[in-house]
Amino acid sequence: MESLSEKECVDTDTKDNIFYSAIKRIMDIVLSSLGIIVLSPLLLIVAIAIKLESRGPIVFVQERVGMKGKRFKMYKFRSMVPDAEEMKKNLEKCNEMSGPMFKMKEDPRVTRIGRFIRKTSIDELPQFLNVIKGEMSIVGPRPSLPKEVDQFEPWMLERLEVKPGITCIWQVSGRNDVSFKKWMEMDINYVHRKSIALDIKLILKTFLLLFGDKHAR
């Protein structure tokens, strides 16, 4: 049997990528829409709780870097006090994450309701809107801040070849207990292995976060 020519291999890969992208987009729209509808009572309760506990907006909006380096506004339920960004300057020395990311286990900026919604990843649910808008996907590397991407090593930029996601391999594999370099390696691994089967597997694993994840901060 004759082997496929180089052109035929390229054509096959292109068709596979188009099929994967189409199915993934359909999944993103359907699951995000269902998520917003089904979880709307929970979203309303969380919104009220955030507003009652402290002044400031219910949803935190922050610029992040998406696919191919395109920037967009990412949504999250606000889990910190309103002046969190200003307070961060005095907490840099307490950073527990290697690399350009900032993570702190007992972050004094986090509110009481903030601890709960972070523990359960409920704070990420507004990103269903980012998914519907096409800026994010349900599954993909977590979107980074522009200043973080500026400090990436060249090989880490490959994670920008796909849309950022609400959940990813890192999200279900230890999260903040994973080193920055290992985190980036997980993202690159996803880019190389991406498939509908892998996406479904990661989505199912993410449901466990609703029952509390000891690694979440």
Outline the structure in words.
It is a single chain. With 217 residues, the protein is mainly alpha-helical. The protein has one domain. The protein is 44% helix and 9% strand. The chain has a two-stranded antiparallel ribbon with strand order 1-2. A hairpin with a 5-residue loop joins strand 1 and strand 2 (71-77). The termini are far apart.
List the helices and strands and how they pair.
Elements: H1 6-38, H2 40-53, E1 59-65, E2 71-77, H3 84-88, H4 112-119, H5 127-132, E3 137-139, H6 146-149, E4 165-167, H7 180-193, H8 196-206
Parallel strand pairs: 3-4
Antiparallel strand pairs: 1-2
Helix pairs in contact: 2-4
Q: Give helix % range.
A: 40-55%
Number of structural units classed as domains: 1
Structural class: mainly alpha
Number of helices: 8
Give the helices and strands as they follow along the chain: HHEEHHHEHEHH
Total number of beta strands: 4
| Terminal CA distance | 55 Å
Average pLDDT works out at: 86
Coarse shape: globular
Largest sheet: 2 strands, antiparallel
State which percent range the strand residues make up.
Answer: 5-15%
Please list the strands of the largest sheet in the order they lie side by side. Answer: 1-2
Q: Are there runs of 5+ residues with pLDDT below 50, and where?
A: none
Rg (C-alpha, Å): 18 Å
